[in-house]
Design a protein that fits this description.
Length: about 200
């Protein structure tokens, strides 16, 4: 009988006649074992969630590193803008970019920025350039001096007086800020190359 009981999943056995005290003791042991199993299941679930979050962070960091490599290969500002938009898209977001200056332009994932996108970039350009991040409803604008980046669908928590309560949007803003910094460095390098070439032409 004991073998049949264990075969169908029984965890303990009590033969008749039994003492009430023995029954209560075994019941307490079963409850304690059940609580222990629940705790282990909870710990396993939390470990899996942490591992998944860590893997996602690694993927997001890989996007940043890939952009840095691609930016270093860009030979002009338009190619750089394309790479920047592609990197933002890799985070599941859409963006448009404006490069300021005498040969400035505005771009999106589909080519030249639309009239609506240009209007959004105009509003961003009119903001205080000393402030890097700007809230636009459910969107966020990044003001990087000669480079403007408008990201749609990035929650502006922590901007415009709102409390920063969501970890992932804050993390994505940090990553996109690093993308912008990398793009600005490459843009400055391209301007130096252009200036150097122009000087050589006059020599």
């Amino acid at each position: 009988e004991r073998l049949r009981g264990y075969a169908v999943g029984a965890q303990d056995y009590l033969s008749k006649p039994f003492e009430v005290e023995e029954l209560l003791t075994k019941a307490d042991q079963l409850m304690a074992r059940h609580r222990e199993q629940q705790g282990l299941a909870q710990a396993l679930s939390e470990a899996r969630s942490a591992a998944q979050a860590s893997a996602k962070r690694m993927d997001e960091t890989a996007v940043l590193l890939a952009f840095q490599r691609a930016a270093g290969q860009c030979q002009d500002a338009r190619a750089l803008a394309v790479r920047l938009i592609e990197a933002v898209q890799a985070y599941g977001l859409d963006a448009c970019v404006r490069v300021l200056g005498p040969h400035g332009f505005s771009s999106s994932a589909h080519g030249p920025a639309s009239a609506l996108e240009c209007s959004l970039l105009d509003h961003l350009q009119a903001r205080d350039p000393a402030q890097r991040l700007h809230a636009f409803g459910a969107h966020t604008g990044f003001y990087g001096g000669p480079l403007l980046l408008f990201v749609r669908g990035l929650a502006p928590d922590g901007l415009g007086g709102k409390p920063a309560t969501q970890e992932r949007p804050r993390h994505l803003r940090d990553l996109i800020h690093l993308l912008l910094e990398g793009a600005l460095q490459r843009l400055a390098a391209l301007e130096e190359l252009t200036t150097s070439r122009e000087r050589k032409q006059f020599l």
